[in-house]
Write a structure and sequence with these properties.
12-stranded mixed beta sheet; 349 residues; alpha+beta; Aminopeptidase
């Protein structure tokens, strides 16, 4: 919910975002104490609309940002503001919500007080690491990483670059986009360059964040050539490993895992970063590198009393979508279905 990110989504028309702002009017000087960005979604003209707490595609955290001293006051006011606004739906889909945050407890409490409904779709443990806990220092994974690094070094000079200056970030992000397009994501048509709107948005997103030094792209290079890229975002003392890509010809050397391992070491060796959020699923390769976990939850809430028609319809859609997606993934894994490679966008203009 960085303002630069929300501005990028709005100005590129990538998402229809609304932002709730909570102010402490009792302070000597008016003080902002809460921010929550959501987007309005609707499948068809007569389909009930709902709110998504992930304000745009490629966001990985739907929790609001609230001053800890005001959480119990702000959450009910957020709900009241939504209910009072005739344009905003009362049904909210909250995916990738930090279940360990005080915000989650406050939402459950406020919802119960209003007599609202909630439906949990799933809970998972996202790989997460802090300066004090979570980095696996020994074991078979650590041994394999050392072996892969040594084998890769035998092919040429290997280095890691993570330059946070805006120009360097822009250049490195284009390297990431090219690697992703040339990977299995390009083959399936899900790479960012496979869609013109997606490409325009993420270029604006990373460029705007980089101007504030809140984004970078770490590169694993051999002989000066990038063979793996990790896009990072920064907020306060937390870094987020947003997206990754690597060259398939070097897959046997685990370039993605090597890069994450080295970047983790680099970030914690400097001041300012105390935690890294993987933005990844529980079964991702980062789970093999980090022992730390953060509990996440996907759930649907209805701010009105009882279960509205919109809530029931969105609940059925979500359940059906998740089942179909799970079936698709199984069929892909078994080789029953595949997607042709889409033509990417070569220009960065």
């Amino acid at each position: 919910m960085d303002p630069a990110a929300l501005t990028a989504a709005h100005e590129t028309k990538f998402a229809k975002v609304c932002v709730l702002l909570a102010w402490d009017e009792g302070a000597v000087q008016r003080k902002l104490v809460g921010v929550w960005a959501l987007r309005t979604r609707k499948l068809a003209p007569f389909w009930p609309a709902w709110l998504e707490a992930l304000p745009y595609n490629y966001a990985f955290l739907s929790s609001p940002v609230i001053d800890p001293a005001f959480i119990d006051d702000v959450v009910p006011e957020f709900f009241a503001a939504i209910r009072k606004n005739p344009v905003l739906p009362n049904v909210i889909n909250l995916q990738s919500f930090n279940a360990e945050s005080p915000d989650y407890d406050a939402i459950v409490k406020a919802l119960a007080a209003r007599g609202g409904e909630q439906l949990r779709f799933c809970e998972n443990a996202r790989p997460f690491v802090t300066r004090e806990f979570g980095v696996k220092r020994s074991g078979s994974t650590r041994k394999k990483l050392r072996q892969d690094w040594n084998r890769l070094s035998g092919l040429g000079a290997v280095d890691i670059v993570n330059d946070r200056t805006p120009g360097a970030v822009s250049e490195a992000f284009e390297a990431f986009l090219a690697l992703e397009l040339d990977s299995w994501k390009g083959d399936r048509g899900t790479a960012l360059l496979c869609d013109e709107k997606d490409a325009a948005f993420v270029r604006r997103l990373i460029g705007s964040l980089a101007e504030q030094r809140n984004a970078s792209v770490a590169l694993l290079r051999i002989g000066g050539r990038a063979i793996a890229a990790q896009v990072l975002m920064y907020c306060g003392t937390t870094a987020y490993t947003w997206k990754t890509a690597f060259h398939a010809d070097y897959a046997k050397y685990s370039p993605g895992a090597l890069l994450i391992d080295k970047v983790t070491e680099e970030l914690f060796s400097t001041s300012g970063i105390d935690a890294i959020d993987s933005c990844a699923a529980e079964g991702s390769f980062m789970a093999q590198l980090w022992a730390g976990r953060r509990n996440m939850v996907d759930f649907l809430i209805d701010l009105g009393p009882g279960k509205s028609v919109g809530f029931r319809i969105e609940a059925m859609r979500q359940v059906g979508y998740r089942r179909i997606r799970a079936l698709r993934d199984r069929l892909r894994a078994d080789g029953w279905i595949s997607l042709p490679k889409k033509v990417g966008l070569a220009s960065s203009s």
